[in-house]
Amino acid sequence: MITAIVSVQTDVATISETAEAIAAIEGVSEVYSVTGEVDLVAMVRVRQVDDVASVVADQVNKVPGVVATQTQIAFQTFSQHDLEDAFSIGI
Predict the structure, then answer these.
(1) Listed residue (73, 59, 17) closest to 40, CA to CA
(2) Comparing C-alpha atoms, which of 78, 80, 81, 10 is closest to residue 41?
(3) What would the mean pLDDT of 71-91 be, rounded to a whole number?
(4) What is the pLDDT, as a whole number, of residue 49?
(5) What is the pLDDT of residues 5-40, one digit of tens each?
(6) Which CATH number covers residue 82?
């Protein structure tokens, strides 16, 4: 599983509508409205690296209201939540 974090700048008048449209795209697991230099952060989870380009370049960037995106691909996941789940099943 490939995880990409996509920072999205939007037209401020359409943040909610843009977030909902992005969240409806297959491969996008969550969309967060955030503070700071960008308006939204979308989590993309797909099977192959090439699928990231398909989701971001071919779909997210074409959503009305999206002004710009910046994508980061995660190398490794570190999560206390994941560790707690693993220990609870005896791993």
Answers:
(1) 17
(2) 10
(3) 72
(4) 93
(5) 999 999 999 999 999 999 999 999 999 999 999 999
(6) 3.30.70.920
Number of domains in the chain: 1
Q: Indicate the residue type of 21.
A: A
**Residue 53, pLDDT score:** 95
Cβ atoms 47, 1 nearer than 8 A: yes
Closest-CA residue to 44 (of 18, 8, 15) = 8
- State both tokens at 20: 């909902």
Q: How far apart are CA 34 and CA 40, in angstroms?
A: 6
HSE (side-chain half, CA atoms, 13 Å) at 25: 25
In this prediction the pTM is 0.85
Place of tokens 């560790």: 83
Domain of residue 18, residue span: 2-88
